[in-house]
Amino acid sequence: xxxxxxxxxxxxxxxxxxxxxxxxxxxxxxxxxxxxxxxxxxxxxxxxxxxxxxxxxxxxxxxxxxxxxxxxxxxxxxxxxxxxxxxxxxxxxxxxxxxxxxxxxxxxxxxxxxxxxxxxxxxxxxxxxxxxxxxxxxxxxxxxxxxxxxxxxxxxxxxxxxxxxxxxxxxxxxxxxxxxxxxxxxxxxxxxxxxxxxxxxxxxxxxxxxxxxxxxxxxxxxxxxxxxxxxxxxxxxxxxxxxxxxxxxxxxxxxxxxxxxxxxxxxxxxxxxxxxxxxxxxxxx
Amino acid sequence: xxxxxxxxxxxxxxxxxxxxxxxxxxxxxxxxxxxxxxxxxxxxxxxxxxxxxxxxxxxxxxxxxxxxxxxxxxxxxxxxxxxxxxxxxxxxxxxxxxxxxxxxxxxxxxxxxxxxxxxxxxxxxxxxxxxxxxxxxxxxxxxxxxxxxxxxxxxxxxxxxxxxxxxxxxxxxxxxxxxxxxxxxxxxxxxxxxxxxxxxxxxxxxxxxxxxxxxxxxxxxxxxxxxxxxxxxxxxxxxxxxxxxxxxxxxxxxxxxxxxxxxxxxxxxxxxxxxxxxxxxxxxxxxxxxx
Lengths: 285, 291
Description:
The complex is a heterodimer of chains A (about 280) and B (about 290). Chain A has helices spanning about 10-45, 50, 65-105, 115-120, 130-140, 150, 160-170, 175-180, 185-195, 200-215, 220-225, 235-240, 250-270, 270-285. Chain A has about 280 residues and is mostly helical. Chain A is flat, with a radius of gyration of 25 Å. Chain B is an all-alpha fold and about 290 residues long. In chain B, α8 runs antiparallel to α9. Chain B has helices at about 5-35, 50-60, 60-90, 100-105, 115-125, 130-140, 150-175, 180-190, 195-205, 205-225, 225-230, 245-255, 260-290, and strands spanning about 35-40, 45. The two termini of chain B are about 30 Å apart. The longest helix of chain B has about 30 residues, at about 60-90. Chain B contains 13 helices and two strands; from the N terminus they run αββαααααααααααα. Chain B has a two-stranded antiparallel sheet with strand order 1-2. In chain B, β1 and β2 form a beta hairpin. Classes of the chains: A mainly alpha (about 280), B mainly alpha (about 290). Chains A and B meet through α1, α3, α4, α5 and α11 of A and α1, α3, α4, α5 and α6 of B.
């Protein structure tokens, strides 16, 4: 209060002006950020003829259903299912492996614990791309090229997940373990009957982040999956853009794009709070 | 804590098996491959020492790819973080509907780079695109986004920035909310204006987050932007957008020069190691100063 410089009415007016300016700036930013997607939605309603008209038609066309049908029939429908299957597999694998590893690191004393934890954590920093050549050869040698094993297995272990569960388990009061031991619960019973039921928030956070991550994979499926019937949705987008007689079917391509972004967006909006939590947790190193 | 001889190792076995087979083994293997000339899809290997590396660093194409990547990464990281910080600072104000605004700012995070690529490809396409129509109407120009070297590089940079805004805003918002109110109030009592408060109090306190995001955005720009390039420009026109990861893909999987591509993987790997070491060092320092 000591520093209120001018009369309180003028002060209030200034403050209101400032608030309006902030609202306007935010609305403008949101529109600019959303604009490409809004234009894609508009594009998905237009026929090829309308998309290639100049000046562009800035009102919705009538081809929406038609474009989605075309995209679906191009194989995108099948790819949606494929991607859902693979992403779910990756998420389940990651959650299970991370829980087991996190549990081992927090509740057990064993030789080599620090070095093992380091070996797991350090992998956080190494993207698949820096070993993609040899990984590709390895899967060919295993005769697992063009299979979903190739899409799921390399992604099953997770430094982020292990770290997340380690932090979560560490935050649980030690008394819980003591009480369980007094009751004669062994480690596995302690994990499944006591720890797991209070860990669903962490599971949700990891699952949400990992689902989007797995859903958005592009380069690895592009290389390792060689038949259209097994392909992932992101690679399908590239196919949808393949020009027919020099003309890209923009309406269909945009419908395909929207199909591909709906599932991760739904996950994002439903689990937004979990996302934040997952990120916040994974960040504290 | 439990003392058990085998159980902890059994619990760790699945994760270690996966990491060993699909991370550590290929990582060593790619280094070995980089010392060989590989023919017939891996059927024949000839040890050539560091020849692949020598060829790489004497190839004008690869050195050009290096330059392109440097410009691209700088263009993604610096404007990307600056814009994200601005947006986060705006969304952090105490106003009505703040939560709604936040959601509306960060949702593009869930979009894939491939989808970002197709959408921006459409937006900037010469005939069907909105941007050239707008530029034509207001300035009477129709830039050739995909035919001009500089414009193409600019376009994939802008697309990559847009796609990662949501991610960056999430972290900046979280960091802004953790700044102790007392510090800002104290600065205000001392007579510091909003701008000064931001630069002298908020910005330094955000530096751990900025540093973390710097690393993550560099990794993103180096590796995860591949779909944007593949969908929008395929490295072209000429080699104008041929970033390192795209060059690796081309050499390894289109021209089947496995040894050469492996050497490129190792170069990228070394880069990531350096980045990781810097990150760890910075974290150590933060711990020492207790901030």
